[in-house]
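Notes, Module 5: Reading structure tokens.

Key idea: the token line is not a picture. It is a compressed description, and you learn to read it the same way you learned to read a sequence, by spotting repeated patterns. We will look at two proteins. The first is printed below with its tokens.
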Amino acid sequence: MNNPESEMMTLRELAAYLRMPEKTLYRLTAESKVPGFKVGASWRFRKGEIDRWIERQETREAD
């Protein structure tokens, strides 16, 4: 049942995946610019949603 589409990532893992500072990612997530949700006080991200978000960002930049 290990579906890469629904694989969960922490803020630290996502920051490494996106190669960006955790502080910047936290700010973008808090501003709803990156798709994520809170579990208690911690942010979580679905890898599939992040990959789709990246594709949308690439499409916007190409316009």
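Here is the second protein, with the sequence above and the tokens below, as before.
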Amino acid sequence: MTENTPYELLEQPDGVPIKAWTRGVALEDEAKAQLRNVARLPFIHKWVAAMPDVHWGLGATIGSVIPTHQAIIPAAVGVDIGCGMMASRTTLTAADLPDNLQPLRRAIERAVPVGMNSFQKTPAPSENAWKKLGSEFNRIMAKHPKIGQKRPEKQLGTLGGGNHFIEVCLDQVDRVWVMLHSGSRGIGNMVGRYFIALAKKDMERNIRNLPDKDLAYFEEGAQHFSDYVEAVDWAQRYARRNRDLMMRYVLEALDRIRALPPFEAHVEAINCHHNYVQKEHHYGADVWVTRKGAVRAGSGEMGIIPGSMGARSYLVRGKGNPESFESCSHGAGRAMSRNAARKRFSLQDHERATRGVECRKDGGVLDETPAAYKSIDDVMAAQADLVEVVHTLKQVVCVKG
């Protein structure tokens, strides 16, 4: 790394280079090993880009950008297909919020099923949204019935578990925003797992030649490539629609709270993926770009980089840096595993870290406590050449899956 480059260049004797925007941020050895495995694949375009929130993941490194010629790695896209963020600014200000924010959290939890829960009776907006999605899904299922169905329309407009969340936030001038994080729910998971297994099966004879069996891939022209592209595109659209509906249900729930004055919420909205694949043009070629825990940051494009449940989040404008394939980080990135966080931190630690935030303070969210994540400020400093900050948000209410 030279003084003129904001990234660390990891040379690869038997593969393409790795450009890692990790100055001032730890890059674990396990994540380096995964990045090097991906960089050894024969169809990588130019190099692999690692974002400052990079950390070990299943199949491929979370926080990586993987451009490929005529091939896609299903495990690099992952099973939370289309996972991403949405934020909407309201006309409310901090002065409009009640002193007791618990009714806001409870109202959100009643409006949007969280964790493994689904709607018992599908709301009309979700049912209408499913009509088109459902007919397209039926065509996919006709070819691949083993994907299975678990009534995906019942989960359309729901949060899910893990690190998914819904937050009420204040920006730098005390305007109220609603921000949420979710993806394609159970059906995206099933699509992802099915095609990951199918890629491994298709490559049974060649799997030993891969640096990691989870990097099994489909090549353009192969039997299942076009089917995967169709299914992953569908799951990504399902995920985006899922966020749209959740935002609608959250805003309607807040609108029914008598303690809040009437407000509007169409002032500004951003909806972006950070686990997905799509065709893009980079360095003279049309390539498949897989962003596993990364956000597209083309010139002028808006994105969301959330911190942990006790830290700041950032709404950013992309600078279109070609060396990162016009990408930036998708969050702070985990500093330790979920199991390690549960063992290391106490409920008292979590309560201190989330002081001033109306959120769960129980053991069920210890693995999501702020100290389990990297410093969002260090992550933002490491990617100053990728994005500029437009709004800084701090949550006052957090609903965790």
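Summary for the second protein:
- The mean pLDDT is 94.
- The chain has nine helices and 17 strands.
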